[in-house]
Amino acid sequence: MPRSAGTLLVLLALIVLWQGLHLLVGASSLASPVQTVTKLAALLATGEFWLNVSETMRAFVAAFAISLAGGITLGIVLGVRKLAGNVAEPILTTLYSIPKVVLYPLVLLCFGLGISAKIAFGVMHGLIPITLFSMNAIRQMKPVYRRTSQVMRLSPSQNAFTVIMPAILPEIISGVRLGFSLTLLGVLIGEMFASQRGLGFMLTSAINIGQIDTIMAIALLLTVFAVTCNTLMMRFDRRLTHR
Amino acid sequence: MSEKWLRVAVVTAMILLVEALCRIDVIPRMVMIAPSDMVVELGKLLASGQFSADIQITFTNIAISTVLSVLLGFAAGVIIYSLPSLRDAIEPLLASYYAVPTFVFYPIFITLFGVGSASIIAIAVLLAVVSMITATLNGLDRIPRVLRKTGQIYRMSRVKTALLIELPAAMPYLFTGVKLAVAYSFIGVIASEFILSGAGVGYAIAYAYNLFENGHMYALMLLVLIVVTVVNTLLNIVDRRLQARRQR
Question: Rounded distance, CA B181 to CA B172, Å?
Fold first, then answer.
């Protein structure tokens, strides 16, 4: 696989660049790759770190589940009802493009400090992209599929599971991929701004006491986690489209 | 056209509903002030000039980071496009780039550049530049081959081909990148100010939140929402023109 060899080479170059930058600005401003990995290993061995990880994960999983269920349902409804879809789409795209972080105080005032505010904020980020992608998936479904299923007199449930679902799945997965990353971002921003627990909280408290290696270890962990999940979803997507 | 009016009606109904809920105290004043009060507060705040320094800093930073991302992204896109082996290596990384929650790198920039405009612009550019790179690659890919061949027939120089054929042909796709760069710059700048900084609209909102100054807070929120909506609408109008040109 010469293709992935090239990617590895680029990654290697990035690590070399990182090391070079570390040597340039000094260890107090930027931890080296080795220091970061060692710190991450040390953090992973402590129980407290896992408490923060599980706090973030709980908020993230809940927010993602709500975005997923709500987004797909809403998207399908808006996709099937043409008028509702046409009316809602520009409103949704406008909502999607506003920096939702300015609304975080509102979320905090509604839900109070704690996990529910983080979940709500994650949902605010993740719900709309999943809705938009699901809606477009239904709208752009080839009419021939619908007609074929009518000709074959499929029952509504057969129609849903053997025709519509497989037809819209690849598009929905693209939306889910975007929703996944944005939900994670939302939960983390929520934790960075106001929270007592979680990885985002660890990040901001590490800035205040100047622990650059902790910051970089957490950033590395989150990057690896996000990229791994994204790659898995892309693989799944590719398998579906090449069926 | 009726869809447009229906949309206006839906949005107006929602605002009126919130207004009514605020007026009859179902939504307490501590949580949210009525939308009409927000407008009044915004008017007072803009007239007093209390936050004009913050507003200026934020929009300057957004402008700088948009320009930087567009220029850097375009340059990087052209370079990557002209080196196919580099492109093969980099493309999988670009595909998963937006999966990374970029804001976790903000603390690193703070230790590098300190709290201030430099780290805020850095994080906003980091967030925005990749969408411009992707858009540039996409645009260059989709230049119809016949256009370049025509250029060859006319024996146009490389520079002329680039300026008169390739750039206009790729423009609609490049503009998609510009649109995204603007949106990401807004998010990057305001969110960083919000999380940790000493000035700017995001900072002012966070500060007002901490002091329970709901009037200021909601007025500033409204300001951001209005500016973003207006900017997006303008960009979409230009975008629609460019897309129409593409289809011709």
Answer: 14
Whether B53 and B199 have beta carbons less than 8 Å apart is answered as yes
Q: Name the minimum distance, in Å, from the CA of B166 to any CA of chain A.
A: 28
Q: How many residues does chain A have?
A: 243
- What is the total count of domains within chain B? 1
How near does any CA of chain B get to the CA of A217, in Å?
Answer: 10
The number of folded domains in chain A is: 1
Condensed to tens digits (0 to 9), the pLDDT of residues B82-107 reads 998 888 888 888 888 888 888 888 88
Q: Is there a domain that residue B81 lies in? A: yes
Cβ pairs bridging A and B (under 8 Å): 146
In tens, the pLDDT along B122-154 reads 999 999 999 999 999 998 988 888 888 888 888
Least CB-CB distance to B108: which of A6, A216, A227?
A216
**Would you say the ipTM is above 0.90?**
no
Q: For residue A122, give the amino acid letter.
A: G
Contacts of A204 in chain B (CB under 8 A): 107, 195-196
Looking at the domain assignment, is residue A225 inside a domain? yes
The whole-model pTM stands at 0.86
CATH of the domain at B58: 1.10.3720.10
End-to-end CA distance of chain A: 22
> Radius of gyration of chain A from Cα atoms?
22
* CB < 8 Å to B223, chain A: none
